[in-house]
Design brief:
alpha/beta; 2,3-Dihydroxybiphenyl 1,2-Dioxygenase, domain 1; 4-stranded mixed sheet; 8 strands
Length: 117
């Protein structure tokens, strides 16, 4: 047996509202929507789908899992994401020139944008 990641799902209060942010952020479209669960199509052939699932409880504390997004122009992408409604939380330096910015989507779910891989 071989496993692969087919989708990453984010718990949220309003899947449709959050889909507006993520479809623009990832330049993709909604492939499924039943109101409680929204799936965004992968934005490239070998990409992973993003699910947005309604849950009754609010997010508390730090995300235990988050999405890491890669780009060749981190600063430009961070500016674009902030204009779409994300909040910049901080920048970090790692080994071998890796740099990343931590952001939060409009519901406060943290994700990173990295460059230098």
């Amino acid at each position: 047996m071989t496993l692969s990641i087919g989708m990453v799902t984010i718990d949220c209060a309003s899947p449709r509202a959050l889909a507006e942010f993520w479809t623009q952020a990832l330049e993709t479209s909604v492939s499924y929507d039943d109101g409680e669960f929204v799936v965004l199509a992968p934005n490239k052939a070998d990409g992973v789908a993003l699910g947005l699932q309604r849950v009754p409880e609010p997010r508390t504390g730090k995300n235990r899992v988050h999405v890491d997004l890669d780009t060749t122009d981190r600063q430009a992408e961070v500016r674009r994401l902030v204009e779409l409604g994300a909040t910049e939380l901080g920048e970090h330096d790692g080994p071998d020139g890796l740099r990343w910015t931590v952001l939060a989507d409009p519901e406060g779910n943290e994700f990173c944008v990295a460059s230098g891989h």
